[in-house]
Amino acid sequence: MTYVEENRSVSFFQDLYNSQFNGDIDASDRIRRHRQEMDLEYRDGTTANYAGLVVPQYLTQLAAELARAGRPFADQCTRLPLPQDGLTINISRVTTGSSSAVQSSENSAVSETDIDDTLLTADVRTIAAGQQVSRQSIERGSGVDSLIAADMMGAMAAQLDNQLLNGSGSSGQLLGLRNISGTNSVTYTDGSPTVAEFFPKLIDAIQKINSNRYAGADLIVMHPRRLAWLQAAVDGQNRPLVLPQTNVPQNALGIGPVAGYGNTGTQIAGIPVVTDANVIDSAGSGSDEDEVYVVRRADMLLFEQAGQPAMVRMDQTAGLNLTVTLVAYQYATFVGGRYPASVSKLGGTGLVAPTF
């Protein structure tokens, strides 16, 4: 071996230096010969032998945020700018309209009914999220504040969407589809539910909007498990009723890909389907029913302020503890009851948790 303890006339580290920085040919030859010798000799050195040099790597740019339901329904609403001032929005709703009739004869009185309206008032609500973190974690960490901000934004998006669907309208909540008065109601009661029996109920929910709003529905909102139940159904020849293709086949209940969340690309009765995990799945006496909503998107008004959600960083709220407070917030209001007949809610025992 070139470099052994007994051969004190040469030094590996000295030759390494001389070959790289002094152009020593003899040193380079010894280094080359040493490499050849190492190819012939087998040693069992592992990363454990170099623990101080093998540094663990953390891919902070690939940090996984908490999975959240997001805002699939909110993104389908008619989005309008929130007025700059005020904490309420008032919209006039005509409740008594003009009358008309055939004029009985020339110069005779025409039909006349005084028009009357009622104010629809919607409150502006604040959705917010906060975190208190040490200054050290922000200043000495890598991307900590960005990860926290993204997580808070995700939490707020899911909360806003949840409010649009399930909000009670009281205690600081928005008034969601589930609790709007005067909407169309369809009940599917079935101890052994099937897709074939569910489908007429869905069509009933659609026609109620046609019949009462005098305009067409253009969105179906359901829990992902409900769409999966529909996509899993087969006919008497074991052919799927919801086909995963784009060309409209004969005798199909619906079409669209099986995989997807939110705007899935699936259509049922020609109406797009959005899956939203914020749809309640604990309704009914057994706390295991979900609901399906059919709506007219043009009547679903979501007011959001431009530039929000906004981030606020407060460094001195607990300055003696070196604690930094991060807060994200936004103002929003939802008007889904401008035309209550634009909403059909389908529920009942036929929508218990499906089995596959």
Q: Strand-residue fraction?
A: 25-35%
The CATH architecture of the largest domain can be given as: 2-Layer Sandwich
CATH level-1 class of the largest domain: Alpha Beta
Q: Total strand count, please?
A: 15
Widest beta sheet: strand line-up: 5-15-11-6-10-9-8-7
Which range best describes the helical content: under 10%, 10-25%, 25-40%, 40-55%, 55-70% or over 70%? 10-25%
Rg calculated over all Cα atoms: 33 Å
Any overview of this molecule?
This protein has 356 residues and is of the alpha/beta class. The chain folds into 3 domains: 12-49, no CATH class; 69-95 and 111-172 and 306-332, 2-Layer Sandwich (Major capsid protein gp5 fold); 182-302 and 337-351, hypothetical protein PF0899 fold, CATH 3.30.2320.10. 23% of the residues lie in helices and 25% in strands. It contains 6 helices and 15 strands. The chain has helices at residues 12-22, 25-40, 135-140, 144-166, 195-212, 224-232, and strands at residues 78-81, 88-96, 116-123, 125-134, 184-187, 219-222, 242-243, 254-255, 262-268, 271-275, 292-295, 301-304, 310-318, 323-335, 343-347. The strands form 3 sheets. An 8-stranded mixed sheet has the order 5-15-11-6-10-9-8-7, covered by helices on one side. The model has no long low-confidence stretch (mean pLDDT 89).
